[in-house]
Amino acid sequence: MTSTFHSIETAKRSLNTQTAALNTTGHNIANVNTEGYSRQVVKMQASLSMEAYGFLRSTAAGQMGAGVEFTSIERVRQSFLDDQFRNESSNSGSWDIKFDTLQKLESIVNEPSDTGIRKVLDNFWSAWSDLSQDPENITNRKIIKETTQALTDAMNQISTQLDALTSDLTSNVSLKTTEINSLLQTVADLNNNITKLEGLGDNPNDLRDQRDLAIDKLSKLANVQVTQLSDGYQVTLGGQLVVTGDQVTAVTAEGLKAAYDGGTLTGGEVYGMFMSRDKYVTDYKSQMNQLANTLANGDIEITLPAGTVLPEGTVLNTGANNTPVTYSNANNNRTITADTKVTVKGINGLLQLGYTVSGTTPEKGLALFTSKDSGAITAGNITLNPLIATDPNKISTSMRVTGVGTTNEKVVIGNNDMALAMAGLKTAKFDFGAALSTPGTVDDYFSSIVGELGVQTQEAERQAKNAEQLTEQVALNRASVSGVSLDEEMTDLIKFQHAYSAASRFMTTFDELLNKLINGTGRVGL
User: What gap in Å lies between CA 370 and CA 86, rounded to an integer?
Assistant: First the structure.
């Protein structure tokens, strides 16, 4: 049999439950713009009947209900969408960095433009063409000097900018490492706090939201995997176990690089930085070094015109089966009697087959390019030969002398064979090794660099946009489940308010009934 005050208890439970629902709805509304917040709901269920099975159990029909109660306040969250979002976020982070790096590389290469390497090369070849028309003109020689310095300066600048970009990416990896460690410590601290509160029987939804938000931010930096254990999240980042409970294993830039090399770091901004630095920037620096070195010393086939007089002791592979031949007075073969195809070592090798006009006796031509550090020529150290920079008359233009083999040899000053040969290198085929499948012109090689960069940038832009759209789509799907809708919350607010009002009216009604029962019973006739 139910208690006389059974309905009062039923009304009280209803008021408590609807109050919790109203408070939770207000909490949702307050956090509608809070990053990482998940909508919370009150789980209600009908209270168990207060009457137990027994011998004296009431025989009244049915079972009198005991009202409502809430069992928990839970956040609305789907782990599948979280995993999907984090995967897409990692992918988006890596493509964003790669696209940004390739855009910077395009700015460094600066093609097509009126100030890039191609324009400087055109000026260089044009200067040699002008010199061939008047090889004795000192003004033309000075122009050769200036255009050559402009070319080497342009290559030096590109190399310096590529080095700076490499340094920036390395520094950013260190900064991101610090950010990762900070987020990992946040996750570990939240694991500890959540475990303590759960041990007290509480349901720390807001702390769980903060922990998931930290994981979301980590996923932008590197690929992460999360496993729910009894003591909280176990986090694996880039293949490394970094968080277990409240214990953190800090990551280092070196450790992340090892994970990248080992193939376990596969996404996120840090992955994009390593790939940008070690692939894109390194490749383009290598290609610019190849351009500079090949221009100076790369194999190139030219034709020596008949009548050319080679400097004493010149060695060329013009013998049978490309065997070396020494051209000397002793061999009586310095004068070329017929047009002869020979392979020389770039611009430097070609100019050393001619003569300068700076002395009273024939002087063998000098290399046009040297390196600043005496090492192999690269885009970073290539420079104009200091001797030519000081005296432009040391630029070789003539390939003929008179009085061959005598002590009174003289350079044919007006001869322009060398200047013509140099001007013709604009369309000559240089051997760029594996960089080009077949020998090609300098313009061909540089065009291949620019073309490859353009295609890579376009592809990175497409991938970055696709990854961003996919991330946004998953974020919207997750928000549709976990996000706060003000319209929905206002509807719930009205629903719970009416329920509370009805429960209050229910309690008031029974209060009046009990008042009549207690204070009015037995008073008949008084």
Answer: 52
